[in-house]
């Protein structure tokens, strides 16, 4: 398997899958077939307050109903918090991570720019705390999260590039330059769970030997941060393919938060897997 392309489909079990997930899954398994590789299933359930075992079971049920299969065992992120902590400590030893005690309200009040997702860019307040001030905050028990010192990480990593395949799966690869500075100092270890999406996905892609990543175009900008983390952690950078999104009647992408109609709903209405394929363009 190490000598062939290896991909992953990595949903979060915080709700039922919808047509947007079906599109992403079909893209991943089609890409694996096109490139002569294998697609894995990974369950990204680090958000332990929202993710539920019954949703994980439903994901497996829906994917099997669509006719998709994968090698076992399936990687479960909630079983890997110690792995993420070890990776974070490697960065901490090089001063590439620092503690942040700011509340969301304080960040919003002091930010003067936004990131590609439209969220306030952290103004770097806690980056300038002295060791004594940090120790005092720790001893006081103030809630803390840990951020990437992005400028230092970029300086250490050097030029950041990655390979993109597209717009079709058989197009000639192109080299792009990552621009992680536009994200500021992102959170790598959240206050509640000790890791973050950006961090865990990079660590797990490396652990599984993922060579090609398919993701929606809405995640293209986040690749900047992932490439930077791959470099400073000593990982290889996979190739990327960014696929189209399915939009609802409001022009926005389908999502669980908008209660988009689920695959289970469609199945109860008599839809077949072939109906789903046609609906998402496969």
Automatic annotation (TrEMBL):
Pfam families: tRNA-synt_1c. Keywords: Aminoacyl-tRNA synthetase, ATP-binding, Ligase, Metal-binding, Nucleotide-binding, Protein biosynthesis, Zinc. One of its GO terms (biological process) is glutamyl-tRNA aminoacylation. Residues 8-271 form the Glutamyl/glutaminyl-tRNA synthetase class Ib catalytic domain. GO terms for molecular function: ATP binding; glutamate-tRNA ligase activity. GO terms for cellular component: cytosol. Signal peptide: none annotated. InterPro entries: aa-tRNA-synth_I_CS (IPR001412), Glu/Gln-tRNA-synth (IPR000924), Glu/Gln-tRNA-synth_Ib_cat-dom (IPR020058), GluQ/Sye (IPR049940), Rossmann-like_a/b/a_fold (IPR014729). Belongs to the class-I aminoacyl-tRNA synthetase family. PANTHER family: GLUTAMATE--TRNA LIGASE (PTHR43311), GLUTAMYL-Q TRNA(ASP) SYNTHETASE (PTHR43311:SF1). This is Glutamyl-Q tRNA(Asp) ligase. It comes from Devosia soli.
């Amino acid at each position: 398997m190490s000598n062939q392309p290896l991909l992953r489909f990595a949903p979060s079990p915080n709700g039922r899958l919808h047509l947007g997930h079906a599109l992403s899954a079909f893209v991943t398994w089609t890409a694996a077939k096109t490139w002569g590789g294998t697609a894995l299933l990974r369950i990204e359930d680090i958000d332990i307050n929202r993710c539920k075992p019954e949703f994980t079971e439903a994901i497996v049920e829906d994917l099997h109903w669509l006719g998709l299969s994968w090698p076992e065992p399936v990687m479960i992120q909630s079983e890997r918090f110690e792995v993420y902590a070890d990776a974070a400590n490697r960065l901490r030893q090089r001063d590439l991570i620092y503690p942040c005690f700011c509340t969301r309200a304080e960040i919003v009040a002091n930010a003067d720019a936004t990131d590609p997702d439209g969220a306030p860019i952290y103004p770097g307040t806690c980056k300038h705390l002295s060791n004594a001030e940090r120790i005092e905050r720790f001893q006081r028990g103030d809630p803390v999260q840990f951020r990437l010192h992005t400028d230092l990480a970029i300086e250490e990593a050097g030029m950041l590039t990655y390979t993109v395949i597209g717009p079709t799966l058989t197009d000639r690869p192109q080299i792009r330059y990552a621009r992680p500075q536009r994200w500021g100092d992102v959170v790598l270890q959240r206050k509640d769970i000790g890791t973050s999406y950006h961090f865990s996905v990079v660590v797990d892609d490396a652990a599984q030997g993922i060579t090609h990543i398919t993701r929606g175009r809405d995640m293209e900008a986040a690749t900047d941060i992932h490439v930077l983390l791959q470099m400073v952690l000593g990982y290889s950078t996979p190739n990327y393919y960014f696929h189209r999104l399915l939009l609802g009647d409001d022009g926005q992408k389908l999502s669980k938060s908008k209660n988009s109609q689920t695959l289970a709903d469609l199945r109860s209405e008599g839809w077949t897997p072939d109906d789903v394929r046609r609906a998402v363009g496969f």
